[in-house]
Structure formats: C-alpha cells, structure tokens
Design brief:
Length: 311
C-alpha cells in the first residue's frame, strides 16, 4: 500500500501495545512515536532497532527513522490507483528488457544509516535482488533489501514536506539508488532525480515522454499514461507490445526465408540435401540467410554453397 505521514497532531491510539527496545526497561508506546521524519531527526537517537521493530514494520504502515518508528496513515484510492498503474507499466518494461521487475509498496529497504524505508513503487535488477535481499538478522526468516532499489518512485502526498522528501532522497542515493521519481498526482507531474545530480530534479508534464536511463535502455513512455484511468491492456503494455509484434513479424519472415532457401537449393542443385540442413539454417540470422539466397543462384555446386553455412 502507498503510505503518507500523518498530518494531524493527534497521535495514534496505543491499543494497549507496549514494546521494550534494546533490552532496556524503558517501554515505548505508539504515543511516544514521532509524527514524521522531521520530528524523528530532531530527537536524540531512538531506542528502536531494525531487529526489535521488524514485526511491527512488517505488519503496519511504519518506517524507521533515526531509531524511531514513524506511523503513517493510509492513502486514498486515487494515490493507490496511480501507484498500481506505475508499477505495472514499469514491471512490464523491466521484465521485457531483462533488467528485473517492479515491486509495490511495503517492500522494506534498509539504508546504510539503518533507517528502514518503504518506497511506494520501486524497480530492482535481478542482480541486486540476488545479492542484496537477505534476512534482516542472522537466523531470521524475514527478508529485506539491504540498500536501495535502483529506481525509487515516491507518490507525493499533500502532507509531505519538501524537507522530508529531500532527506529521503539523500538516504536512497547514499544507499545505492540511481534514479528517483517524485510523482505529484494532483499536478500530474513527475520530477526525476539522478544520482549524479541528486538536488536537481527534471520536471516532466503530462505532454512529455519520460525515460529511465540508464536502467531501462531505449524505453520511454508518455507521462499522461501513468495518470490515465482508461488505458487498455495493450496500452498498458505500450511500447513493449510494439516490440513484441515486430519481433514476431521478423521471426515469421525469417522462418519463411529458411523454407524458401531449402526449396531453391533443391531446384538449383538437383541433389539430395544434407539431413542437418534445416538445423544449420536455424542458426543463421536474417543477414546470413539473405547472403545464402544470393549464393544459391551464383554458386556452381552444392558443396560450395554448403561451405557458406555454419557447421
């Protein structure tokens, strides 16, 4: 789920929940939790660690900042709808390009400073997932990402403060993020920050095309698609669908050319063709097949023509 920090000064009820942190006798309740990231960093280091807070973090909309749990309120349907659309579009692109996949909110990411953040949407490469998804502590079965996803998407909520967004971006970049999208669903805009220029976001409006260099090479998408309520299944797939159709058409043409070559070779040389000819032609790309089509008309013997084929 997409989350946002509470805008009300009223703290959540305790519901009788008490937690003992760091093995001390100081019990902390929900009434002790900061209201937001900024308040957490104005305090001294808090008593909560990833290990003793992991159960709550997994079950409730919380993040861990400076040793303090920060309660977050549920977001509305529109934010969730847009986050879901962004996730499915990015997921299809990442999978089609062999990069990795996109993940929804509540994926727990442990930063280098031991804060724990949960991006609204993110994209993680196959390599990073294999190398950096680990148990949160030795012997634990609870898996977290140690570091940041390569692409982080944060949906900007009305209650978010710009200083908090900058602090989060800094933490993500220090922990390995390469690109961060700051999505303002009310203004229908996306600001893109890159690790080389972490404080300079490039603004994209609904009329613009957005890319995700260097992660998703060659991929691009109209910004308005992420906010649209009327995309069909094929429109969701977008550019990738066009690539699939082109690849399918090209493969069909290549298969037809292979069959024609066999017919031409039989007509030209009038001899029994090798049993493995079809298999050898299957290893030929389009350029090689075109070359063989030319040679079948100019080569004097079947043996000479076969020399041009891969073994």
């Amino acid at each position: 789920m997409v989350t946002r920090t509470l805008s009300s000064r009223k703290r959540p009820p305790t519901n009788g929940l008490h937690n003992q942190a760091n093995g001390t006798k100081n019990f902390k309740t929900k009434q002790d939790w900061p209201l937001d990231l900024g308040e957490a960093y104005q305090r001294d280091r808090g008593p909560y660690t990833l290990h003793n807070a992991i159960t709550l973090l997994a079950e409730e909309p919380l993040e861990l900042f400076n040793g303090w749990l920060v309660w977050q309120a549920m977001t509305d349907a529109e934010e969730r709808r847009i986050a879901a659309t962004i996730q499915v579009i990015l997921d299809i692109a990442a999978r089609a390009l062999g990069f990795g996949q996109a993940y929804p909110d509540q994926l727990e990411c442990v930063m280098v400073n031991q804060d724990l953040l949960k991006p609204d949407v993110c994209v993680i490469s196959k390599e990073r997932y294999e190398q950096q998804v680990e148990p949160e502590a030795p012997g634990s079965e609870h898996l977290v990402l140690k570091g940041s996803p390569e692409l982080v998407v944060e949906i900007r909520s009305p209650s978010n403060r710009r200083t908090q967004e900058r602090k989060k971006r800094k933490s993500y970049f220090e922990s390995g993020a390469e690109v961060i999208w700051d999505v303002d669903y009310q203004k229908r805009k996306i600001w893109v920050y890159e690790v080389g220029t972490p404080d300079k976001g490039q603004e994209f409006t609904e009329q613009d095309e957005i890319s995700c260099k260097p992660l998703l090479a060659g991929w691009k998408r109209k910004v308005e698609d992420f906010f649209s309520k009327d995309l069909s299944a094929e429109e969701i797939v977008g550019q990738v669908a066009g690539q699939w159709r082109a690849e399918s058409k090209a493969e069909g043409e290549i298969e037809a050319l292979r069959n024609i070559l066999i017919i031409q070779a039989e007509a030209r040389f009038g001899k029994e063709l090798p049993e493995n000819l079809e298999e050898r032609l299957n290893h030929c790309k389009l350029e090689k097949l075109i070359e063989l089509a030319t040679l079948v008309a100019t080569t004097s013997s079947l043996a000479d023509w076969l020399k041009a084929l891969p073994d």
